[in-house]
Every structure is written in C-alpha cells, then in structure tokens.
C-alpha cells in the first residue's frame, strides 16, 4: 500500500499508523539499497532544512546532514547558542520565521512542547530529533535493524532494561505496540513510563496483538526476548538532578552482561542500544559490559547507520511525498 506523507510532521510515533510506519521502514530499506548501489536520484534539490540542536548529537545531526546532501538539499545547523530561540524570541515566532525559509525543520532539545509548537506554527514538516519524552527517528532505525535481523516484526519480543521512563523506553513502547511486537520493560517500578502513555500503548497493543509488560525482575523481564535493548541510565540534561546516584544504584541489577543475555533462553537474542553508550570492563556501574557490546549479538552500529536511511525516508516522504 502506498501512502502520501507529504506535509506530515514526525513529533511522536503516536501520530503514525502501523501502515505508515511499515511504509517508512520499507522506503528506508529501498533508500539504503539505492545508496549502496551508488544511485542518487536527488529528490530534494533546491530545498533547505533547518537543524536546531539544544542538546548535543553525533548520529542525529550527521544523519540529517548526510541525508540532505545525498538528496541535494541544503542543511543549515542552528545551534542553540547561535539563534535567538529561547532568548530573544519565542518558539512561535521562530517557527513562523523558519517556516518562511526552510522546507523542513529538525528539532532536538528538552521540551516536547517546543517541537509541537514548531510544528503548529511553521507550516512545514517538523521532525523530532529527540526530546525529554520521545525519540521517534531512533525507533524507526531500531525497527529497521530488527527487520534486517529477523525478516519481520510481528510477534517478536523486545525487552528494554534500564531507565524505563526515558525518551527511548517511551518511544520503543509505542513503536513495538504499533508494529505488533511484544515489549517488556525491566526496571524498578519507579522507573516505569507514566500511566497515560502505558494506557495508550496498551490500547494500541489490543489492536495489533502485542503484549506490553513490566517487571522489576531483570531475569524474568528478559525471558524469551529476541532483542535486549538498553540506553544510558542518565539522559542528557539530567546529570545534576537530585536522586541520580540512587537511580544508578537501583539500575545495577539491570546491566546487560552475558548472564542477562543467556537468561533469555534463546540462542539468537540480539543486543541493541541507541548510542552513545557507556560500556565497561567489569566496573558495575554502567548499562552494558564490553563483552556484550563488542559481541556478534550486538547490532549497535547497524542501528547507527540506519539512522541515515530512516531519516532520509522521513525527510523525502514529508517534503515531496
Ligand atoms: N542515538 C542518538 O540519537 O545519537 P546522537 O545523540 O549522537 O544523535
Ligand atoms: N536517553 C538518551 C538518548 C540519547 C540518544 C538521552 O536522552 O540522553
């Protein structure tokens, strides 16, 4: 089934149907094959895209810049210290200015409300490159990577262990629910997602046949998992918040190590991480050990590469349809 996503913003995966997500994943696969074959149709010639970053980035910024270059568009990086946003100008005014000049706007920053406001007032597609609440473009790359490894998504089980209420845990819950994948969060109960989001994901899951589940026991959480996913225990902007040391202590049993990988009971379980990662040789205070991070089961650099292809699919489909 073909869709026309022209003019659509990607603020959260809530806004996209399973069919639309599937369409974007298939388009991403085609664009990856195209690039591998050296074919560059340059669908975005004479277009310009704005890249606003309130927080640091390696993958997201690079993926948008290279995807734009591959398609013949001009990417303009607007670092938070270079523009008026948040200092002399409101988000609403910035949105209206950028919308007069650019064909699309990427935003990475703190509040989900900021990216929502940019979309509301700019009149051009806006793409969420990460907020405190969601990281939807990352999840598209993750789903693509799962597809490359298993051939399809429906019925697979992903277990996310770690900070179960951060942007990745939230967005993966939506992505899995939409695509009929079973999704379990293994985390202490105070680090599970907010109730409204769980209720929404469970409603979606009822439609797609997926099971959304939570456990405070790491080994029970990963049982039967085809994919173990983790992320940093302290996200960007949280470093100096109260209670972080207690959080790290409470997450130590959820570290991904060979014992946890074996606890799935499945020989084929893959390891995923959005990166950047803290991987460690023995010190018991980081989310994944070196032995797993560097193992054959680790697909983290495929995920990183797939950021480029999925972001390109999002840009092309929302700018030219
Ligand atoms: N995964 C991800 O979003 O990486 P960056 O922070 O480097 O963009
Ligand atoms: N949860 C992490 C994701 C980084 C891509 C953060 O927000 O820092």
From TrEMBL:
<dbReference type="GO" id="GO:0004585">
    <property type="term" value="F:ornithine carbamoyltransferase activity"/>
</dbReference>
<keyword id="KW-0808">Transferase</keyword>
<dbReference type="GO" id="GO:0005737">
    <property type="term" value="C:cytoplasm"/>
</dbReference>
<dbReference type="GO" id="GO:0042450">
    <property type="term" value="P:L-arginine biosynthetic process via ornithine"/>
</dbReference>
<dbReference type="Pfam" id="PF02729">
    <property type="entry name" value="OTCace_N"/>
</dbReference>
<comment type="similarity">
    <text>Belongs to the aspartate/ornithine carbamoyltransferase superfamily. OTCase family.</text>
</comment>
<dbReference type="GO" id="GO:0016597">
    <property type="term" value="F:amino acid binding"/>
</dbReference>
<dbReference type="Pfam" id="PF00185">
    <property type="entry name" value="OTCace"/>
</dbReference>
<feature type="binding site">
    <location>
        <begin position="135"/>
        <end position="138"/>
    </location>
    <ligand>
        <name>carbamoyl phosphate</name>
    </ligand>
</feature>
<protein>
    <recommendedName>
        <fullName>Ornithine carbamoyltransferase</fullName>
        <ecNumber>2.1.3.3</ecNumber>
    </recommendedName>
</protein>
<feature type="binding site">
    <location>
        <begin position="57"/>
        <end position="60"/>
    </location>
    <ligand>
        <name>carbamoyl phosphate</name>
    </ligand>
</feature>
<feature type="binding site">
    <location>
        <begin position="235"/>
        <end position="236"/>
    </location>
    <ligand>
        <name>L-ornithine</name>
    </ligand>
</feature>
<keyword id="KW-0963">Cytoplasm</keyword>
<feature type="binding site">
    <location>
        <position position="108"/>
    </location>
    <ligand>
        <name>carbamoyl phosphate</name>
    </ligand>
</feature>
<feature type="binding site">
    <location>
        <position position="167"/>
    </location>
    <ligand>
        <name>L-ornithine</name>
    </ligand>
</feature>
<dbReference type="InterPro" id="IPR036901">
    <property type="entry name" value="Asp/Orn_carbamoylTrfase_sf"/>
</dbReference>
<dbReference type="InterPro" id="IPR024904">
    <property type="entry name" value="OTCase_ArgI"/>
</dbReference>
<feature type="domain" description="Aspartate/ornithine carbamoyltransferase carbamoyl-P binding">
    <location>
        <begin position="8"/>
        <end position="148"/>
    </location>
</feature>
<dbReference type="GO" id="GO:0019240">
    <property type="term" value="P:citrulline biosynthetic process"/>
</dbReference>
<dbReference type="InterPro" id="IPR006130">
    <property type="entry name" value="Asp/Orn_carbamoylTrfase"/>
</dbReference>
<feature type="binding site">
    <location>
        <position position="84"/>
    </location>
    <ligand>
        <name>carbamoyl phosphate</name>
    </ligand>
</feature>
<feature type="binding site">
    <location>
        <begin position="274"/>
        <end position="275"/>
    </location>
    <ligand>
        <name>carbamoyl phosphate</name>
    </ligand>
</feature>
<feature type="domain" description="Aspartate/ornithine carbamoyltransferase Asp/Orn-binding">
    <location>
        <begin position="154"/>
        <end position="317"/>
    </location>
</feature>
<dbReference type="InterPro" id="IPR006132">
    <property type="entry name" value="Asp/Orn_carbamoyltranf_P-bd"/>
</dbReference>
<feature type="binding site">
    <location>
        <position position="231"/>
    </location>
    <ligand>
        <name>L-ornithine</name>
    </ligand>
</feature>
<feature type="binding site">
    <location>
        <position position="307"/>
    </location>
    <ligand>
        <name>carbamoyl phosphate</name>
    </ligand>
</feature>
<dbReference type="InterPro" id="IPR002292">
    <property type="entry name" value="Orn/put_carbamltrans"/>
</dbReference>
<dbReference type="InterPro" id="IPR006131">
    <property type="entry name" value="Asp_carbamoyltransf_Asp/Orn-bd"/>
</dbReference>
């Amino acid at each position: 089934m073909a869709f026309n996503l022209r003019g659509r913003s990607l603020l959260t995966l809530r806004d996209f149907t399973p069919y639309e997500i599937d369409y974007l994943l298939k388009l991403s696969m085609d664009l990856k094959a195209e690039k591998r074959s050296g074919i560059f149709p340059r669908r975005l010639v004479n277009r310009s895209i704005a890249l606003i970053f309130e927080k640091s980035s390696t993958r997201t910024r690079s993926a948008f810049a290279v995807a734009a270059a591959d398609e013949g568009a001009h990417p303009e990086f607007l670092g938070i210290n270079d523009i008026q946003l948040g200092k002399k100008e409101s988000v609403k005014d910035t949105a209206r200015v950028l919308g007069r000049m650019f064909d699309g706007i990427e935003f990475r920053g703190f509040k989900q409300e900021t990216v929502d406001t940019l979309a509301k007032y700019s009149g051009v597609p806006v793409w969420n490159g990460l907020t405190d609440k969601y990281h939807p473009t990352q999840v598209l790359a993750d789903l693509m990577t799962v597809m490359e490894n298993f051939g399809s998504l429906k019925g697979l089980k992903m277990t996310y262990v770690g900070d179960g209420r951060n942007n990745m845990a939230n967005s993966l819950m939506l992505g899995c629910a939409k695509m009929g994948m079973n999704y379990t969060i293994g985390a202490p109960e105070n680090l599970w997602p907010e109730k409204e989001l769980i209720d929404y994901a469970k409603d979606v899951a009822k439609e797609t046949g997926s099971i959304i589940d939570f456990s405070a026991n790491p080994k029970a959480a990963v049982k039967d998992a085809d994919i173990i996913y983790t992320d940093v225990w302290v996200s960007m902007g949280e470093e100096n918040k109260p209670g972080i040391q207690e959080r790290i202590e409470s997450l130590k049993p959820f570290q991904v190590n060979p014992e946890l990988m074996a606890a799935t009971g499945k020989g084929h379980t893959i390891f995923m991480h959005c990166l950047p990662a803290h991987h460690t040789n023995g010190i018991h205070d980081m989310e994944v050990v070196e032995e797993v991070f560097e193992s054959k089961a680790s697909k983290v650099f495929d995920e990183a590469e797939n950021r480029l292809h999925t972001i390109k699919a999002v840009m092309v489909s929302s700018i030219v349809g």
